[in-house]
Amino acid sequence: MMIKPAKELWHDYLFLTQEMAKFLQRQDFDMFFELMEQRERLQAMIDEADGDGFKVSDEGRQILNSIRQENQLIMLQLRVNLNNARHERKVNQAYDPYAAMGLVGSRMDRQS
């Protein structure tokens, strides 16, 4: 297996991060998690190959800054998705006829 230079690996990492944001926006969670796993494997390769100091070069710092910005967008979108899922769950529970019957029945049992 040929190991790429750190510069190429970092560009690949940025690309995967940008793709993760796109698929998260589309709510394609299967692809999002697949890309996340690929990015984790790439991170291990970067850790091995980053001896050339690309991270501290001007281009390297620009890429890292772009990655940080994309990660912030991803975290924001994940929070939005989590809040939406919580809200949908509460709404579903509120309109669940079996849950409502259970509450009514338990109140009647206590009062009698």
In short:
The protein is an all-alpha fold and 112 residues long. The chain has 4 helices and no strands.
Describe it for me?
There is one protein chain. The chain is mainly α and 112 residues long. 83% of the residues lie in helices and 0% in strands. The longest helix has 37 residues, at 58-94. The N and C termini lie far apart (76 Å). The mean pLDDT is 85.
Tags for this model:
mainly alpha, 112 residues, elongated, single chain
Helix share bin: over 70%
User: Based on the structure, what is the oligomeric state of the protein chains?
Assistant: single chain
Distance between the termini: 76 Å
Number of strands: 0
Average pLDDT confidence is 85
Which descriptor suits the 3D outline? elongated
From N to C, what is the helix and strand string? HHHH
Q: What is the rounded Rg?
A: 23 Å
Proportion of strand residues: under 5%
Structural class: mainly alpha
Question: DSSP helix count?
Answer: 4
Q: Extract low-pLDDT stretches.
A: none
For the sheet with most strands, the description reads: none
Topology, element by element:
Elements: H1 6-25, H2 29-49, H3 58-94, H4 97-111
